[in-house]
Design goal:
Elements lengths: L1 E7 L7 H11 L4 E7 L5 H9 L4 E6 L13 E2 L1 H6 L4 E5 L2 E5 L2 H11 L8 E5 L3 H12 L3 E5 L3 H11 L2 E2 L15 E4 L21 E4 L8 H8 L3 E3 L1 H17 L5 H6 L6
Parallel strand pairs: 1-2, 1-3, 4-6, 7-8, 7-10, 8-9, 10-11, 11-12
Antiparallel strand pairs: 3-5, 5-6
Helix pairs in contact: 1-8, 4-5, 4-8
Length: 267
């Protein structure tokens, strides 16, 4: 019997235990998945604890540790380094390896909703790890990417490192999203019921992807749906990045239907 974890602070709200435990049951694997609340100051000690476990299957990493944990691991993959964040820890022999499955999850969610990005103009809101994963995926697929962030310096760092164009944050009034085909919210706005673009009109031609995975629809997705936009739910990205993590740990194809059924609402 093995054990896997999601490390975060806070982490009690995480939907990952339900998904991964459903996946273990579906494949008859005698493992369990637990959430561990780890304060930032406790992170080095937690990594040491993981190293001492003889039954470790693997781990996920969520906020606020995704950027900090890489320096505590034995290896970080080139993709995780490019994204600047680790969301999956894989045990290889005695080494703890840092991976990132967000780009795969992002692309799979778009594909499932049949949102084509090649040749489309995409606005990404945010400049953290999720935004970087989205930008990498979009550029690789042939999209034209523009990035906006409340802190312009962070957005400038992202575009300088990965590509894309920096623009000012869209504000209410006029056609703030003129020329945009796809809107991606990669900020944290939505976790507590916030709307990242309050008052900004959402044209029905838009496809809107809110990366926030919440038990209820975010205000941005609710408003987008009401405006007639095609929407992509953050739960889909969570599902597909979790499936990729599961395969890295176990070598098995993830039972996505079982994992999907464990989510708090239908996607």
């Amino acid at each position: 019997m093995g054990v896997a974890f999601v490390l975060g602070h806070p982490v009690a709200h995480s939907l990952s235990p339900a998904m991964h435990n459903a996946a273990f049951r579906a494949l008859g694997l005698p493992h369990r998945y637990e959430a561990r609340d780890v304060a930032p100051a406790e992170l080095p000690e937690e990594v040491t604890r993981l190293r001492g476990l003889t039954d470790l299957v693997g781990a996920n990493v969520t906020v606020p540790h995704k950027e900090a944990i890489g320096g505590l691991l034995d290896l970080v993959t080139p993709e995780a380094r490019a994204i600047g964040a680790v969301n999956t820890i894989v045990l290889t022999g005695s080494r703890l390896e840092g991976h990132n499955t967000d780009r795969v999850g992002f692309a799979a969610a778009l594909a499932e909703r049949e949102v084509a990005v090649t040749g489309r103009r995409v606005l990404v809101l945010g400049a953290g790890g999720a935004a970087r994963a989205a930008v990498l995926s979009l550029l690789a697929a042939g999209a034209t990417v523009v990035v906006a962030n409340r802190t312009m310096a962070r957005a400038a760092q992202l575009t300088a490192a990965l590509g894309g164009t920096l623009i000012a944050w869209p504000e209410a009034g006029g056609d703030a999203l003129a020329g945009i085909d796809i809107l991606v919210n990669a900020t944290s706005a939505g976790l507590q019921g916030e709307d990242p673009l309050p008052g900004v009109a959402l044209p029905s031609r838009l496809a809107v992807f809110d990366l926030i995975p919440t038990a209820r629809l975010t205000p941005l997705l609710t408003r987008s749906s009401a405006a007639g936009c095609r929407t992509v739910d953050g739960l889909l990205m969570l599902l597909h990045q979790a499936a990729a993590s599961f395969t890295l740990w176990t070598g098995e194809n993830a039972p996505i239907p079982a994992m999907r059924a464990a989510l708090p609402r239908r996607v």
